[in-house]
Amino acid sequence: MKQKRIIEICANSAQSCIEAQAGGAARVELCAGIPEGGTTPSYGEIRAAQKAVPDFDINVIIRPRGGDFLYTQTEIDSMLFDIDLCQKLGVHGVVFGCLTASGDIDVPLMKRLKEAADSLSVTCHRAFDVCRDPFAALEELIALGIDRVLTSGQQSDAVKGIPLIAQLVSRAAGRIIVMPGCGVRENNIAQIEAETGAVEFHTSARSVISSKMQYRNINVPMGSSAVISEFETVQTDRRKVALYL
What we know:
It is a single chain. The protein is of the alpha/beta class. Helix content is 34%, strand content 18%. An 8-stranded parallel β-sheet has the order 7-6-5-4-3-2-1-8. The chain has a two-stranded antiparallel sheet with strand order 9-10. The chain is globular, with a radius of gyration of 18 Å.
């Protein structure tokens, strides 16, 4: 019997968590800093999400900044403090990934963070996609007791990464969950599922939300020039989530 497809939503807010649950997702990865690939959300965002969806699995990304996955001692301290906070708040899980300068999994640091997470579910995020040897990395994550790895198959999106993802799923042989993510859409998830054998999938299922501001000063941007409009945001859409199931 075919295993039921499991959808994890990359949620950028507590409201996106509400939408993810309403659409039928199994859980969320709660993140801030989506344009940077996801950074650790605030205490307030985590608490608001827990209040909004108290019976829903929330995994919190532990990533102090965008960029690479080689961390300073100060950044490591920040990650440990955030994991401790997640422990105290009783979230479902945490998501992190650390590499050495040579592009390997930083096994001692991952072990330290995993031990700090204790009984929380642990996912290794797409730091995996920029590691030097994905097969060696997979075995190291399994040995560490990591629950799942999020990957696009070391390509710009999961469709392009299908060949590697399929090999990873095969080699994992149920010892760790290999979860395709990045570019997973309602019109390609069946292909990714069929060609990789994956069961869990990571996507955002977002729609653009227009601001309700009536007065608009368009000459004063609040962020970088990469922001298209100060009067548009993106949010998970329950109707889109349902299309993946």
